[in-house]
Amino acid sequence: MVHILLERPLRLRIKTTKLHFPECHRRILTQFSFSINTSCRKPTVTDAGASTGGVLAAALRGRLPGEEPNHATRTRPEKMAEGDNKSANMLAQETAQLEEQLQGWGEVILAGDRVLRWEKPWFPGALIGATTVLFMLIYYLDPSVLTGLSCAVMLLCLADYLVPTLAPRVFGANKWTSEQQQRFHEICGNLVKTQRRMVGWWMRLCALKQDKPKMYFASVISSLLAVAWIGQQVHNLFLTYLIVSFLLLLPGLNQHGLITKYASMAKREINKLLKQKEKKNE
């Protein structure tokens, strides 16, 4: 039960009876006990909105005047801003952790980044040549799947052990500049963003499976059938060579704007064909 008592000067007091309210309601109503002092002058509309209305509105929102709003009473823009801040903080933390993990590979990563971004004109040819030699060697040796996996893991283990040890001696431990550190930070940030995109795609695929299972199974099965047909028509090693070559050339193509250029050209040609088809139909 809620008792409202009026005293002089006008004092509005709300208190609870412990026998009729649960503990959570009793705690909430006890916090909303407040008093409003009035003067002899006639209150104006502004005073009423600023004092009584403001206090009552704060009480109805579930917090006292001057108290910080909780998550339930924050507006949508505030929640979005808070979510963006949390996401930015998490991104910065993950980037810092990745930088710490790859600190021994800094010089090698920067060298590979310069090659992948085609800082010199002969870098694309060097990439294609090295990839071609590697796949020709695999074709000549023709190792089994187990042998190939074992050799690949062995090379990775050797690189993980030797690169952090030999990189400072080859590149020089005292030649690390602020520009290199900034570029290394950008590369780690891009890697973290790429990982987040992949996780986001996987989560969307899982959500599609739960929300629209028929569409999920139809799209997955049709995609796998298309990939299986392509793999049956093209030799698997040659197909792998094409995929690896495209992935190695992709950063340079993007850096020099070639993807945007040819994509826009293809879009213009498609639009021309559609317009010509519409004119013929008219």
TrEMBL record:
<protein>
    <submittedName>
        <fullName>ADP-ribosylation factor-like 6 interacting protein 1</fullName>
    </submittedName>
</protein>
<feature type="transmembrane region" description="Helical">
    <location>
        <begin position="215"/>
        <end position="232"/>
    </location>
</feature>
<dbReference type="InterPro" id="IPR057282">
    <property type="entry name" value="RETREG1-3-like_RHD"/>
</dbReference>
<dbReference type="Pfam" id="PF24456">
    <property type="entry name" value="RHD_RETREG1-3"/>
</dbReference>
<feature type="transmembrane region" description="Helical">
    <location>
        <begin position="238"/>
        <end position="259"/>
    </location>
</feature>
<dbReference type="GO" id="GO:0006613">
    <property type="term" value="P:cotranslational protein targeting to membrane"/>
</dbReference>
<dbReference type="InterPro" id="IPR052114">
    <property type="entry name" value="ER_autophagy_membrane_reg"/>
</dbReference>
<feature type="transmembrane region" description="Helical">
    <location>
        <begin position="122"/>
        <end position="141"/>
    </location>
</feature>
<dbReference type="GO" id="GO:0060042">
    <property type="term" value="P:retina morphogenesis in camera-type eye"/>
</dbReference>
<keyword id="KW-0812">Transmembrane</keyword>
<dbReference type="GO" id="GO:0005784">
    <property type="term" value="C:Sec61 translocon complex"/>
</dbReference>
<keyword id="KW-1133">Transmembrane helix</keyword>
<keyword id="KW-0472">Membrane</keyword>
<feature type="domain" description="RETREG1-3/ARL6IP-like N-terminal reticulon-homology">
    <location>
        <begin position="105"/>
        <end position="263"/>
    </location>
</feature>
<dbReference type="GO" id="GO:0001755">
    <property type="term" value="P:neural crest cell migration"/>
</dbReference>
<feature type="transmembrane region" description="Helical">
    <location>
        <begin position="147"/>
        <end position="167"/>
    </location>
</feature>
